């Protein structure tokens, strides 16, 4: 299929691009490079030996989006473009609602005008966050506790409403904790500024870019007292998008899938995996809990397996080894 991948130069986007190209799809990437580098596009062409069209632009530019959908004869959109830092969304909610929600409604208007009727949307486990703990399935109550999570839920509701009265198909993928990197080490997680997430912060400590890791709380009700999350290898996540696209080709209407492994790991287990991967001790200290955090957040993954035929392959050791290789080969990230 001819696919428009928004946010395709980012961490999830670049790995999804590799999986799509390797599956034989034609790819156009639209990215405003607000949290990624144009250099990623060159690396994608080198890595896959395939051609792809890269366009610098913003999903909030309706005429650009409509023209691109028409000129590239797009069959389906995989929509990853958006802001995703929870803490930042609390301090600057309007920026999150403008980029994520308004950006998506503009994209959908462009699709409507250009007659493009299929979308895969990147949602997040933060739509589940709230008073709950533990294992979440797709029917778990939705109660996001920050503007970032609320923006993702709003978009899911917009898609659900739009599909209800239009011949349009939308699949929503709720990511748990994507980590790791392509095994080549040529693309990976390269956030601008101080990483909010655990794995990129650990990688930057290991490579000497950061002094030491602060472990947010050691008194959680978990076996070792540290937070447990469902880490999924970013290449497994990428293959989940290919599976969703194939489902859309068969005619999917509206559906929601968790993308995770179903397996939880604690912060200390992540540290141990990284020490094994890098071959050196990782300096860390225990600090206070982070506001908004919770003890356990893991996915029930049966639905993606039954409906999409999707199953993850990589374990934590491989995630850490691939993340370390990327960080070692790109100490300052991709610039
Ligand atoms: C993981 C664990 C922390 C950093 C967030 C977003 C979610 C998604 C993934 C976008 C927790 C602990 C972390 C650190 C630490 N992003 N930690 N020290 O919070 O599960 O999810 O990222 O979709 O929307 O909410 O991921 O990597 O921030 O934290 O101890 O410096 O690591 O307490 O237990 P999280 P995370």
Kindly provide the name of the CATH class of the domain at 2-181 and 230-260.
Answer: Alpha Beta
Can you name the CATH architecture of the domain at 2-181 and 230-260? 3-Layer(aba) Sandwich
CATH topology-level name of the domain at 2-181 and 230-260: Rossmann fold
- If you average the pLDDT, what whole number results? 96
Which molecules are bound besides the chains?
Answer: UDP-4-deoxy-4-formamido-beta-L-arabinopyranose
State the end-to-end distance: 30 Å
Show unreliable segments.
none
CATH H level, superfamily name of the domain at 2-181 and 230-260: NAD(P)-binding Rossmann-like Domain
Shape: globular
- What class do helices, strands and sheet pairing give? alpha/beta
Quaternary status of these chains? Answer: single chain
Determine Rg (CA atoms, Å). 19 Å
The helix-strand sequence is EHEHEHEHHEEHEEHEEEHEEHEEHH
- Give the amount of beta strand, in percent: 15-25%
Task: Determine the fraction of residues in helical runs and give it as a percent range.
Answer: 40-55%
Task: Summarize the biggest pleated sheet.
Answer: 7 strands, parallel
Strand order of the largest sheet: 3-2-1-4-5-7-12
Total strands: 15
Count of alpha and pi helical runs = 11
């Amino acid at each position: 299929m001819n696919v428009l991948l928004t946010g395709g130069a980012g961490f999830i986007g670049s790995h999804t691009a590799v999986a799509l190209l390797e599956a034989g799809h034609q790819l156009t990437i639209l990215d405003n490079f607000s949290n990624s580098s144009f250099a990623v596009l060159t690396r994608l062409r080198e890595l896959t030996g395939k051609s792809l069209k890269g366009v610098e632009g913003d999903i909030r530019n309706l005429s650009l989006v409509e023209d691109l959908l028409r000129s590239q004869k797009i069959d389906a959109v995989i929509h990853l473009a958006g802001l995703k830092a929870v803490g930042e969304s609390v301090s600057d909610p309007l920026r999150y609602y403008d980029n994520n929600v308004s950006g998506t409604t503009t994209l959908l208007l462009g699709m409507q005008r250009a007659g493009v009727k299929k979308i895969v949307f990147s949602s997040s486990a933060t739509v589940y966050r709230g008073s709950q703990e533990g294992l979440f399935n797709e029917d778990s109550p939705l109660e996001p506790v920050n503007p970032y999570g609320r923006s993702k839920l709003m978009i899911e509701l917009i898609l659900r409403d739009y599909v209800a009265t239009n011949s349009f198909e939308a699949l929503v993928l709720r990511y748990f904790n994507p980590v790791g990197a392509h095994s080549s080490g040529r693309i990976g997680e390269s956030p601008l500024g101080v990483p909010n997430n655990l794995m990129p912060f650990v990688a930057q400590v290991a490579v000497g870019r950061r002094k030491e890791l602060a472990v947010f709380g050691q008194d959680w009700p978990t076996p070792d007292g540290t937070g447990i999350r469902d880490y999924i290898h970013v290449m497994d996540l990428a293959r989940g998008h290919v599976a969703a696209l194939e489902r859309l080709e068969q005619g999917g209407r509206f559906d929601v899938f968790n993308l995770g492994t179903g397996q939880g790991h604690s912060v200390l287990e992540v540290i141990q995996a990284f020490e094994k991967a890098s071959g050196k001790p990782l300096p860390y200290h225990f600090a206070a809990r982070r506001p908004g955090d919770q003890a356990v957040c893991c996915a029930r993954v049966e639905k993606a397996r039954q409906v999409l035929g999707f199953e993850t392959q990589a374990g934590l050791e491989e995630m850490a080894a691939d993340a370390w290789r990327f960080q070692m080969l790109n100490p300052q990230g991709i610039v």
